[in-house]
Design brief:
single chain; 21% strand; 25% helix; Rossmann fold; metal ion binding; nicotinamidase activity; alpha/beta; six-stranded parallel beta sheet; two-stranded antiparallel ribbon
């Protein structure tokens, strides 16, 4: 591989207290922090980005906001969709990753000093955002697309939480943006069935790699 055909980026998704040990803890979430740190320490990535859910109180994704049962679903519309034409089925989550709370902080043990930038998402009280690229309606983008374009990125490697939501939609949007999307299989965990999440992503054209194989890829590239 030459530099003109391979310029990788690492994106660490939502390794935050509430997703590791808090109100919306992903099973096994703490167990992958070591593997994530080993990825962060690798040379060869053109840019290393982390994302955070960063919700205001009473966010539209919270069950409490609607006085509904946890993990029930509700059809929601974008605040500017006055004719209510484009509804989505929203899972209603426990209150999580609220701005200014410990739950929104990065989890203890995560090596954050090498991040080039931190993307925050879900900051609009009326708009859900799983992906580090854009909200669920695709109306507003984060700064991530511009960062990757400016760096000439070809391949995006994803780790973090959770495989079946924020990792999934970031990977899907990476593909849509024209990047090769890779999920580091031993550096992610799913809220629900991990095998089902992996099969879903593979069916969408997203590729998987493990930490040791990725280390070898980057080592070979850097020689």
């Amino acid at each position: 591989m030459s530099a003109s055909t391979y310029t990788p980026a690492l994106i660490i998704i939502d390794v935050q207290n509430d997703f590791v040990s808090g109100s919306l803890a992903v099973p096994g979430g703490a167990d992958i922090i070591g593997n994530i740190n080993s990825l962060i320490a690798l040379p060869g990535f053109k840019v290393k980005v982390a994302s955070k859910d960063f919700h205001p109180p009473k966010h539209v994704s919270f069950a409490e906001t609607h006085q509904k049962d946890l993990f029930s679903t509700l059809t929601l519309y974008h605040p500017h969709d006055e004719e209510r034409k484009h509804g989505i089925q929203q899972v209603l989550w426990p209150v999580h990753c609220v701005q200014g709370t410990e739950g929104a902080d990065f989890a203890p043990g995560l090596e954050t000093s090498s991040f080039d930038t931190v993307i925050v998402k879900g900051v609009d009280p009326g708009v859900e955002s799983y992906s580090a690229f854009q909200d669920v309606w695709g109306r507003e983008s984060t700064e991530l697309p511009a960062i990757l374009k400016e760096k000439g990125i070809t391949d995006v490697y994803l780790a973090g939480l959770a495989t079946d939501y924020c990792v999934k939609w970031t990977a899907i949007h990476a593909l849509e943006e024209g990047y090769k999307a890779w999920v580091v299989k031993d550096a992610v965990k799913s809220i629900r069935d991990e095998t089902e999440a992996v099969q879903d992503l593979e069916g969408r054209g997203i590729k998987f790699v493990d930490t040791e194989n990725l280390k070898q890829v980057l080592q070979d590239f850097n020689q």
